[in-house]
Design a protein that fits this description.
- The protein is α+β, with helices and mostly antiparallel strands and about 230 residues long.
- The chain is built from three helices and eight strands; from the N terminus they run αβαβββββββα.
- Strands 1, 2, 3, 4, 5 and 8 form a six-stranded antiparallel sheet that branches. The chain has a two-stranded antiparallel ribbon with strand order 6-7.
- The protein is elongated, with a radius of gyration of 42 Å.
Length: about 230
């Protein structure tokens, strides 16, 4: 009885198969590269550096007055102040938008001096808010059980620990958000009395010391004879 013949590859087919496999793998790699580069875009690619009003405002006040108004503005909205001096204020506030989502916003204000007209002092306030988002991550835990001479065995008992993990961090760029803050800063700045009084360029003349009084002059008196 004849054996069933098995299919044998001819030498010509083997020669053709290798280039086809290489060409197919190359095509898959090209398509994968095009797909990944075409769908993923980095967020800073849209940064055009064309707006100078979103994060800045100019006030007719000193650096200390501007930063003090910024500190009071943040305090009035529930921010915890972590640093405050004459040219820098930072504050932090927590939010809970969902049961398993935690958000923290760190607000930073830098006050820089700027020369004004006619020698008047002005200050530029730079404000930046950074938003950190945290999510709950469940971590499975295992328990160890002692088994006499065999030591301890780690068994995967049902259990999990919840931990807050940072999942995103982003600088806020909403213009309305900063407009509301700068408007509030302006209100607190007006409450401080505005700009410092101008210091006169010429110092007032000091009063001259008065001359000491002249000594009293005395004249000799002739004796008058006493009549007998």
């Amino acid at each position: 009885m004849p054996r069933p013949s098995s299919f044998a590859f001819s030498p010509a087919f083997s020669v053709l198969r290798t280039p086809l496999l290489v060409l197919g793998l190359a095509s898959l790699l090209v398509l994968a590269g095009c797909g990944s580069n075409g769908t993923r875009r980095v967020s800073y690619e849209t940064e055009e550096f064309d707006s100078t009003t979103t994060h800045t405002r100019t006030y007719a006040a000193t650096e200390a007055q501007t930063c003090e108004a910024a500190r009071r503005a943040l305090l009035s909205q529930g921010y915890m102040i972590s640093a405050a001096n004459a040219d820098l204020v930072t504050g932090r506030k927590s939010f809970q938008p969902a049961s398993e989502v935690h958000v923290e916003v760190e607000f930073r204000v830098v006050c820089a001096r700027e020369g004004g007209k006619a020698g008047k002092r002005s200050t530029v306030a730079f404000a930046t808010a950074l938003q950190d988002r945290y999510g709950i991550k469940k971590v499975n835990s295992s328990a160890s059980v002692g088994v006499g001479a065999f030591g301890s065995l780690s068994l995967p008992f049902a259990g999990s620990d919840d931990a807050m993990v940072k999942v995103a961090s982003e600088t806020l760029t909403d213009e309305l958000f900063y407009d509301r803050f700068f408007a509030l800063l302006d209100r607190f700045l007006e409450g401080q009395g505005g700009e410092e009084p101008d210091v006169p360029s010429v110092a007032p003349e000091m009063p001259r010391p008065s001359a000491p009084p002249a000594p009293a002059l005395t004249f000799p008196v002739k004796p008058v004879p006493n009549p007998g």
